[in-house]
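Re: [ENG-882] Designed sequences occasionally contain unexpected residues at chain ends

Forwarding the minimal case from QA. Structure tokens:
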């Protein structure tokens, strides 16, 4: 039997192996320790400022504070646009795990229409996910209570209290004030271009139209901020520093609630516009377009049903007829043309022509008829304005020629925007040879001049333009710039809105101003005047000019029959008037669509507005 072999231990070899392993381990540990030291040096020395800033950023946040929007009042301090507290249901998208399920569960608690949910999802796609986005605004007390007791179930969902714009008078001042609405991509682009984007970090709404948009910078104010300390869950621990927001400026308007209500009542059931102004400085005291709509619908996002109803209405309530309604001025511009005729010696105060009821161009059989089919007989410039004789102005217009007419009327303010303090103002047309060639590629004919001579044809104007250009006749050629704002006020003080007048035309004979004004006064005060019946028995003196704008051509031998025409093709009624006759403090332009008869329809409306103005003492606080 063999014995088991005994293995002898090599202590020296094992010692060498251990030494090598220990050295290798020590080198690895030393290397790792060096890497650790280098990394600590990088973190603690070289990148100290970077990581300190990051650490502070996780602990300290800057929260923007939205300023309170300035309020708007009428000339007597009555609130027209205010801020009211409302509660809104809001979500932060990055904190919501499943948006679809969350919306469905919230909709089971309170009523959230599908349209509102779809609108919210569009906002989520367009905005940054860490922003709080409103799902439903104007929550009632019951909805606030229901959501509040269930908030623990919905991470990222909050109920926020905010100030919201409100217009107490509803549709009364819509076309003047405009409205605010959610900031959209176009608004963001506009703010970025004007370097105002940073000032809207905490703001959700912006002026969309009207005074709200025109004075957006003044009304908005300046953003404030808070530096707050938060824990690792983002919960507020304490406020470290606070810079309060500066509220926007409050704006007092020249508009008068009483005048505006009267204008609304006078246009009830009609399509048209009324604008009233102090001709001495351009202060607009009434500004009403009918039909109107409630601007509060737009503040929190109008539904597609309501918006389509407004957009597709044949009465076009979205159109601001005071500044966007473009109409043939008709006979309201006869005083302006008469001034040109006097200034160029085309006529004199004693010039007379025979009116048989029509006018003919030399060598042309066509007859341009006067509104009075049997004619006015012998007429001069006074009776031509007082009785609104078309034939007189046909004859004078052809003698003047379109070149002189176009140039002079441009200087008086036709064909130009008035510069009123809203942006929604349409371009109007003062036709010329060049315009017709460029627009229609046709030459100018004498027949075109005949039409222009009574404010028809290619000539168009807005009600506010008719008013301001007529005011220039009262101011010896000084054109007022209409403005609804009177003062802008904040903690720094009160700023007056500029009331400067602009010079228009220089007259050769200053007496011509008085000739025109005398004729306009007699239009109201004499029995043959086209506005006499409307102003019979008034307690104040006044002047004015009626107009009836024809929208379709009537055959030469045919008689105008309103009942035979589609209702929207009937004549427009127009009137521009002022009072008192000497040193007037009020000028009014009235346009009523498709109702005909400037003297029978528009002038009586102006009369009633003037009656209110003088009886209520609207200008007594000046």
């Amino acid at each position: 039997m063999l014995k088991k072999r005994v293995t002898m231990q090599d202590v020296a070899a094992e010692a060498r192996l251990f030494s090598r392993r220990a050295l290798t381990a020590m080198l690895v540990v030393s290397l790792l320790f060096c890497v650790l030291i280098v990394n600590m040096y990088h973190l603690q020395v070289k990148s100290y400022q970077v990581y300190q800033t990051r650490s502070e950023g996780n602990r300290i946040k800057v929260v923007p504070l939205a300023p309170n929007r300035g309020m708007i009042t009428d000339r007597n301090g009555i609130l027209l646009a205010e801020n009211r507290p409302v509660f809104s249901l809001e979500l932060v998208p990055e904190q919501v795990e499943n948006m679809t399920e969350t919306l469905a569960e919230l909709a089971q608690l309170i009523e959230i229409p599908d349209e509102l949910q779809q609108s919210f999802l569009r906002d989520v796609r367009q905005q940054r996910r860490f922003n709080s986005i409103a799902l439903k605004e104007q929550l009632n007390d019951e909805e606030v209570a229901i959501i509040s007791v269930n908030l623990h179930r919905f991470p990222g969902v909050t109920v926020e209290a905010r100030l919201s714009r409100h217009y107490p008078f509803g549709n009364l001042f819509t076309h003047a004030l405009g409205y605010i609405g959610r900031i959209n991509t176009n608004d963001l682009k506009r703010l970025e271009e004007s370097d105002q984007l940073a000032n809207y970090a905490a703001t959700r709404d912006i002026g969309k139209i009207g005074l709200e948009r025109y004075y957006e910078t003044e009304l908005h104010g300046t953003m404030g901020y808070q530096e707050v300390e938060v824990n690792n869950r983002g919960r507020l621990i304490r406020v470290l520093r606070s810079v309060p927001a500066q509220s926007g400026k409050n704006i007092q308007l020249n508009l008068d609630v009483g005048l505006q209500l009267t204008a609304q009542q006078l246009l009830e059931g009609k399509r048209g516009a009324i604008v009233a102004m102090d001709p001495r400085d351009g202060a607009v005291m009434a500004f009403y377009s009918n039909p109107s709509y409630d601007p509060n619908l737009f503040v929190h996002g109008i539904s597609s049903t309501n918006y389509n109803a407004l957009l597709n209405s044949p009465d076009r309530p979205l159109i601001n007829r005071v500044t966007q309604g473009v109409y043939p001025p008709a006979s309201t511009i006869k005083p302006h043309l008469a001034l040109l005729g006097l200034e160029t010696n085309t006529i004199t105060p004693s010039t007379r022509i025979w009116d048989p009821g029509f006018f003919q161009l030399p060598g042309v059989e066509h007859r341009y008829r006067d509104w009075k089919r049997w004619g006015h007989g012998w007429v001069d410039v006074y009776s031509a304005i007082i009785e609104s004789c078309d034939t007189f102005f046909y004859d004078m217009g052809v003698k003047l020629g379109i070149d002189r007419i176009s140039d002079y009327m441009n200087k008086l303010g036709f064909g130009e925007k008035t510069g009123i303090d809203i942006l929604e103002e349409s371009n109007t047309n003062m036709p010329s040879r060049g315009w017709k060639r460029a627009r229609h590629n046709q030459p100018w004919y004498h027949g075109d001049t005949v039409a222009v001579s009574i404010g028809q044809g290619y000539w168009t104007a807005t009600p506010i333009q008719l008013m301001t250009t007529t005011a220039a006749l009262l101011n010896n050629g000084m054109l007022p710039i209409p403005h609804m704002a009177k003062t802008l006020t904040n903690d720094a003080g009160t700023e007056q809105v500029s009331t400067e007048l602009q010079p228009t035309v220089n007259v050769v004979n200053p007496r011509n101003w008085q000739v025109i004004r005398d004729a306009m006064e007699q239009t109201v005060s004499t029995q043959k005047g086209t506005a006499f019946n409307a102003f019979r028995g008034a307690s104040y003196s006044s002047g004015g000019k009626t107009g009836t704008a024809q929208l379709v051509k009537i055959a030469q031998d045919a008689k105008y029959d309103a009942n035979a025409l589609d209702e929207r093709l009937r004549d427009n009624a127009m009137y521009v008037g002022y009072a008192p006759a000497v040193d007037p403090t009020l000028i009014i332009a009235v346009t009523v669509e498709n109702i005909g008869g400037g003297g029978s329809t528009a002038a009586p409306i102006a009369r009633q507005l003037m009656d209110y103005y003088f009886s209520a003492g609207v200008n007594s606080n000046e």
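QA comment: On inspection the terminal residues look reasonable. The mean pLDDT is 89. Proposing we downgrade this to a documentation issue.
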